[in-house]
Amino acid sequence: MNNSVFVELRFWLMVTASVVLPVAIYVALLLKRAVSRWTVLLLGFTLVAIAGFDVFFLRLMATAARASLSLADDMVFGSEVSFALYLFPLMFGGIGVNIISHVLVSHLVSAEKRFAREHPDE
To answer: Which residue in 40, 69, 92, 106 is deepest, having the highest Cβ count within 10 Å?
Structure first.
């Protein structure tokens, strides 16, 4: 058993994936001049999935931290400080849900306009 969860490869892979993937998604969405609805929807669902994975992994790390010998693990994952770690998944999930709802609302607005053009008598 490792003395700390901070020296485990899976911890650093989680941190890297949790920061690099969302930032890459944001940069891709900001730099593209034209993006299809399906791409935006997929990226929104990806952000929500990353947030869910992060919450699962933070719970897993908290369990591993309680079993480790290191006090630093307990200070980060077993105390009130761990609440701060949940802010990133909360933000990513919130932005992902907002992106998904934007795609759905814009689709519904387009569908309503199309319906109004096709049925002017109603």
So the answer is: 92
The DSSP symbol for 122 reads -
91/34 Cα distance (integer angstroms): 25
Decide: pTM greater than 0.90: no
- Separation between Cα atoms, residue 122 and residue 119, nearest integer Å: 6
**Amino acid identity, residue 118?**
E
- CA neighbor of 5 nearest in space, from 88, 71, 90: 71
In sequence order, what DSSP letters do the residues of 9-76 get, joined into one string? HHHHHHHHHHHHHHHHHHHHHHH-S---HHHHHHHHHHHHHHHHHHHHHHHHHHHHHHHSS-HHHHHH
Residue with tokens 């994952």: 77
pLDDT given for residue 74 in this prediction: 67
Give CA angle at 102 (116, 114), nearest 5°: 15
Among 93, 113, 82, which residue's Cα sits nearest to residue 22? Answer: 93
Cα(44)–Cα(47) distance, integer angstroms: 5
